[in-house]
TrEMBL record:
The active site is at 79 (nucleophile), 201 (charge relay system), 203 (charge relay system). Belongs to the glutaminase PdxT/SNO family. Pathway: Cofactor biosynthesis; pyridoxal 5'-phosphate biosynthesis. This is Pyridoxal 5'-phosphate synthase subunit PdxT. It comes from Arthrobacter gallicola. The gene is pdxT. Catalyzes the hydrolysis of glutamine to glutamate and ammonia as part of the biosynthesis of pyridoxal 5'-phosphate. The resulting ammonia molecule is channeled to the active site of PdxS.
Length: 222
């Protein structure tokens, strides 16, 4: 089984470890550049993208990780992790010195932080998720597409480049307050090459198929 790292600087690390193991991977916490070279792929957890960004630079893991991503290293980012994989943020936070937050990049997307609104910072909805139909765990008799998705101060993807595949959207009829207001479907899951990202948190609901898809991507089977 592939050895999958979870970046363990801040955020929901434990939940990803559990979901990866449920999906059949071996796991390892990653904090240092040398640990990056030991794993076959990496999960960037949810949390606070500004904090994770700062800690990645402090631990000098940001530059080696960028280089690995450019060379095709598989990475899955959920929520703050999606923000960290985005080439551009519409509204980057500024730190006390006025310096904007940075991302690793790699995904040709523009992302909007906290896009679904702050009053109701969290919501749950059912999503149609493309790409789960052919997973080994999938019972051919059961519909594969439905995923129960939890959004916590979640970003959405505002623009995607031509290399990016859209895997899931929150429809205006869904329970996202902002999406209802806009009457526009919002992109909440994307893939490009070996990079996978979701606005929501499959790791908190006992859902392991998104992690299984990522493991298939690492293996070269998806
Ligand atoms: N709003 C957070 C950020 O900008 C992400 C929230 C999350 O990961 N649950 O980093």
């Amino acid at each position: 089984a592939p050895l999958v790292g979870v970046l363990a600087l801040q955020g929901g690390v434990r939940e990803h470890i559990r979901a990866l193991e449920a999906a059949g991977a071996r796991t390892m916490l990653v904090r240092r550049p040398a640990e990056l070279d030991a794993v076959d792929g990496l999960v960037l957890p949810g949390g606070e993208s500004t904090t994770i960004d700062k800690l990645m630079r402090l631990y000098q893991i940001a530059e080696p990780l960028k280089a690995k991503i450019a060379a095709g290293f598989p990475v899955y980012g959920s929520c703050a992790g999606l923000i960290l994989l985005a080439d551009r943020i519409t509204d980057p936070a500024l730190d006390a010195a006025g310096e904007p937050q940075q991302t690793l990049g790699g995904l040709d997307i523009v992302v909007r932080r906290n896009a679904f609104g702050r009053q109701r910072e969290s919501f749950e909805t059912e999503l149609v998720f493309d790409g789960l139909q052919t997973l080994p765990s999938q019972d051919p008799g059961q519909p594969a597409a439905a995923v129960h998705a939890v959004f916590i101060r979640a970003p959405w993807v505002e623009k995607v480049g031509s290399s990016v595949q859209v895997l899931a959207q929150v429809s205006p009829a869904g329970s996202a307050p902002q999406a209802e207001k806009d009457s526009v479907a919002r992109i909440v899951a994307v893939r490009s090459g070996k990079l996978l990202a979701t606005s929501f948190h499959p790791e908190v609901t006992g859902e392991s198929r998104i992690h299984e898809l990522f493991i298939q991507m690492i293996r070269g089977d998806a």
